[in-house]
Design goal:
alpha/beta; 13 helices; globular; disordered C terminus
């Protein structure tokens, strides 16, 4: 697997990140890893990006409680979105393309619903979270107990689908994933505290802001979406493009780093700055 040449990491408003490239007319990229991972998850694709889109400015961040970033008093979605925006602002990135993997697909989408953004790319993100939230609530007692590790392993095995990827990708995932009980439960705080109906309404409101702003939205999946997911996209983000990359499990960006880099490169033409309306942005918060 191709590795990106190391660059000095910096702290941006408390979040540690690797920045590459120089500012130009192409929109900068902000890349957000999934729960239990860190910014290293993007290295293979960013290494390929050097060849297919030289000099493109990018910032891969460690989310609060992950990698080299400090812990946070709260990992609620609204808090994390605000922290990411503070990091983007301190890095001097103007209206980026925001890329989110897994749980960070929601962070990327809600960021775009609130702040100037030139587009969103999600990787294996869920658009209907009610069922997952219901399942988590049924497991909440064991997740908050010493049995957390076993429960997490069962959830991860189902979600990660490592039987679909190469041994190299499987090894990278297993080496990078570091589940901490307090952090995982913190990021699932909204799923525990809000009803499935409230969660769905929150996501739909954010999607409405993205739709109204007319920004590009691409969803990369490792398996065919359900009929219900397709209906959700048609109803809430009808202009979104979905792509299925088979045999890539939960990690298309690792299974196909060159293809993912080419996707990132194509976002360099997303030039119109989408500024979500204040009403929709407030509702998304």
């Amino acid at each position: 697997m191709v590795q990106l040449e190391s660059a000095p990491a910096r702290s941006y408003a408390g979040l540690v990140g690797d920045g590459h490239g120089q500012a130009d007319r192409r929109p900068p990229l902000v890349l957000l890893h999934g729960l239990t991972f860190d910014r290293r998850l993007w290295q293979p694709a960013l290494a390929e990006l050097v060849a297919v889109d030289p000099g493109r400015r990018s910032l891969a961040l460690d989310l609060p409680g992950h990698g080299d970033s400090s812990d946070s008093p709260s990992y609620g979605l609204a808090t994390v979105v605000a922290l990411v925006h503070s990091a983007v602002a301190e890095a001097g990135l103007d209206a980026p393309v925001v890329v989110g993997h897994s749980a960070s697909a929601s962070i990327a989408s809600l960021y775009a619903a609130q702040y100037p953004t030139r587009g969103v790319i999600t990787v294996e993100g869920a658009v209907r979270v009610g069922g997952f939230a219901t399942m988590l609530r049924s497991l909440e007692p064991v997740l908050r107990s010493p049995g957390f590790g076993g429960a997490w392993s069962r959830i991860a095995a189902r979600a990660f689908r490592l039987d679909e990827v190469s041994p190299e990708v499987r090894g990278a995932v297993e080496a990078d994933s570091k589940p901490r009980q307090d952090v995982v439960l913190g990021y699932w705080q909204d799923l525990f505290e809000q009803s499935p109906e409230e969660l769905e309404a929150w996501i739909i409101t954010g999607a409405a802001a993205i739709r109204a702003a007319g920004m590009p939205y691409v969803a990369i999946l490792g398996a065919d979406p359900s009929a219900e997911d397709l209906d959700w996209f048609r109803s809430n983000l009808p202009e979104a493009r979905t792509e299925v990359w088979p045999r890539s499990g939960h990690f298309p960006q690792l299974a196909h780093p060159r293809r993912f880099a080419e996707l990132l490169a194509r976002s360099g033409t997303w030039s119109a700055v989408a500024r979500p309306g204040s009403t929709a942005a407030a509702a998304a918060r």
